[in-house]
Amino acid sequence: MISTPQDSPDESALLQLRGISKGFPGVRALDGVDFTVRSGEVHALMGENGAGKSTLIKVLTGVYRRDAGEITFKNRSINPASPKQAQDIGISTVYQEVNLIPHLSIAENICLGRQPERFGCIRWKFIRHRAEQALARLGVSVDVTETVANCSIAIQQLAAIARALDISARVLILDEPTSSLDEKEVATLFGVLRRLKAEGLGIVFVTHFLDQVYEISDRITVLRNGKLVGEYAAASLPRIELISKMMGREFSEAELHRGETAVASRSDAKPVVELKELGRKRVLNPLSFHILPGEILGLSGLLGSGRTETARLMFGIDRPDCGQLLLDGQPVALRSPRSALNHKLGFCPEDRKTEAIVPNLSVRENIILALQASRGWLRYLPQAKQIELADRFIQALNIKTPNREQAVRLLSGGNQQKVILARWLASHPRLLILDEPTRGIDVGAKLEIEKLMAGLAGDGMAILFISSDLEEMTRNSHRIVVLRDRKKVCELRGADISENAIMHAIAGTHENKEASA
Question: With a threshold of 0.70, does the pTM exceed it?
Answer without folding.
Answer: no
